[in-house]
Amino acid sequence: MAKGASKKISSQNAASLTLLLRGFLLSNLIHILSYTPILASARYRHSGAYKWDVAKYVLSEGVALAIGLLMRDMASKGEDLNAEGLTALLWDVVFVTWFVHVGTALVWRRLWWLYAVIPLYGIFLAYSKVLVPFIFKGSDPLAGLFASLRGGKGPKQASTAQNKGNAAAAEPGLSKRQAKLQARADRGDPRVQRREMQRG
């Protein structure tokens, strides 16, 4: 059983490494061809922007190449390159690099700003996975701020309404539907009509 899983991982890794090699070759070929004298104007090639673009390309390609070599080393050790977590983030950096290189070559020279997505996503993950659960004890202050700006209920108001519904559900002898109707009636919902049963 373990050999079957190991063979499956090694075949998936081989396909991933082939994708990695082809992606690097294609994105670099397109980007380097955009700097040739035929495609780049003479005025652009002699400007400081050309040198700055080449420097950004070399730096970003160096980072992506280092990640690619790390992933090749991981595959040779038998680790799964399709795993979640840090490996998926490494793929994301490589894919964004390829997209930026092809985009700056074919579409717009200022597409380099797309690299800002990577640290912004890291900040979002740190906020949602570390700050909210551990520092703010589960209550998201930004969600309350945005909800109050829109005029809606904040998370504390919504949670108190939910707690009232849960309290009604906790009454013994009520089904789930009856508990929901009871909660609506307690809120004064006009759709709920109370009927008093007379026992005689």
From TrEMBL:
Q: What is this protein called?
A: DUF788-domain-containing protein
Q: Does the keyword Endoplasmic reticulum apply?
A: yes
* Pfam annotation, one family: TMEM208_SND2
User: What biological processes does GO assign it?
Assistant: vacuolar protein processing
| Subcellular compartments | Endoplasmic reticulum membrane
Biased composition range(s): Basic and acidic residues: 183-200
Domain of life per record: Eukaryota
